């Protein structure tokens, strides 16, 4: 069982890494599909100073290193191995590639919630699908341009980008595109421009420390409704890629 879970988290990490390379697809979406999202959020919610220890065994148990490390290493491997391939497809077969991704996301959005079974028994779940779809389309229509990027804007962008890494539906890189700073952030990473990277990383850290516990708490209390909300977000993200 333990070995199977390691393989499961390794596969999930690999596909999460691939997903985060493409604006429009969320790594958290992959976590939901592999059914590791609640546990992953549980692990991230424990990232508090009071939980840190000099005992490796204690840290390993608290943060489930046997599962988390394979996931992280697989994500890194995916980013290294697949970035050139995905870039080639986007540059040479963009329309076909995005159409394929869009259709795949729509199908997966239905699979996540076992749509045709659950929706017949609880009609009120239509509300959450509609709400998620609407939010997804609204976010997709935003067009923010920023020529002179302030430190506050970079911090805010980091918070939003990492927040959408935690929430199924829209990837962090999509939010960077929406916010108009995808190219500056990519350029900053490539050129080690710490004037941009440090405020952005600070925003990501703020999101990492503050939001996982809140998201997990809400998810635990309203799991089914949120799955339908997430499904709407995922479906609308797929439609926007078509």
Automatic annotation (TrEMBL):
Q: One Pfam family this chain carries?
A: VCA0040-like
User: Which keywords are on file for this protein?
Assistant: Membrane, Transmembrane, Transmembrane helix
Which parts of the chain are coiled coil? Answer: none
- Where is the chain membrane-spanning? 12-37, 67-90, 96-113, 125-142, 148-167, 174-190, 196-216
Domain of life, per lineage: Bacteria
> In the record, which residues are listed under signal peptide?
none
Record's protein name = PF04018 domain protein
